[in-house]
């Protein structure tokens, strides 16, 4: 059974120190991919852009700096947990977003009610999909090699 949790949050897209604007961001969590959350950014004039990364990274990033590589999440200020910064990077292209912490925590609380943290592997559908995906990847590698 496929279940999901969705929310829409307004975030600030920080273009530079002088320029930022508010955009809607859709948060989505699905039991068919229980380790991940998806954030879809609706930038004006562009097609929506979706990023998927670990739910645990978002949970940890609300309270302390987390992440290596393409996704980094941290409280916006050392002395306050009121806002979170989300940094996304592809090659040399970077995007920085600021969000209030409260709606992120509310969303994460709803995901935890659907699938408690640490119980993701107990979902039979996920294990079946993972096995299918791994078999498909291995078959593709063997036919290419």
Describe this structure as you would to a colleague.
It contains three helices and seven strands; from the N terminus they run ββββαβββαα. By secondary structure, the chain is α+β, with helices and mostly antiparallel strands. It has a seven-stranded antiparallel sheet, with helices on both faces. The mean pLDDT is 88.
Task: Give the structure's gist in a few sentences.
The protein has 145 residues and is an alpha+beta fold.
Task: List its salient traits.
single chain; about 140 residues; alpha+beta; seven-stranded antiparallel beta sheet; 3 helices; 7 strands; globular
Write the layout of secondary structure elements.
Blueprint: E1 4-14, E2 20-30, E3 36-41, E4 49-54, H1 55-61, E5 71-77, E6 80-90, E7 93-100, H2 101-114, H3 124-144
Antiparallel strand pairs: 1-2, 1-7, 2-3, 3-4, 5-6, 6-7
Instruction: Please write the string of helix (H) and strand (E) elements.
Output: EEEEHEEEHH
Instruction: Give the overall average pLDDT.
Output: 88
User: Which stretches are low in confidence, meaning pLDDT under 50 for 5 or more residues running?
Assistant: none
What is the terminal separation in angstroms? 37 Å
């Amino acid at each position: 059974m496929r279940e999901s949790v969705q929310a829409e949050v307004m975030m600030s897209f920080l273009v530079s120190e002088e320029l930022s604007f508010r955009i809607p961001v859709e948060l989505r969590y699905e039991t068919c991919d229980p380790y991940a959350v998806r954030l879809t950014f609706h930038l004006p004039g562009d097609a929506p852009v979706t990023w998927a990364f670990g739910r645990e990274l978002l949970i940890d990033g609300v309270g302390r700096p987390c992440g290596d590589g393409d996704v980094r999440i941290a409280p916006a200020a050392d002395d306050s947990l009121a806002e979170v910064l989300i940094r996304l990077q592809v090659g040399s292209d970077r995007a920085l977003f600021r969000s209030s912490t409260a709606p992120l925590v509310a969303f994460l609380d709803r995901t935890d009610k659907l699938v408690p943290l640490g119980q993701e592997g107990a979902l039979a559908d996920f294990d079946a999909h993972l096995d299918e995906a791994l078999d498909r990847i291995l078959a593709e590698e063997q036919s290419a090699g």
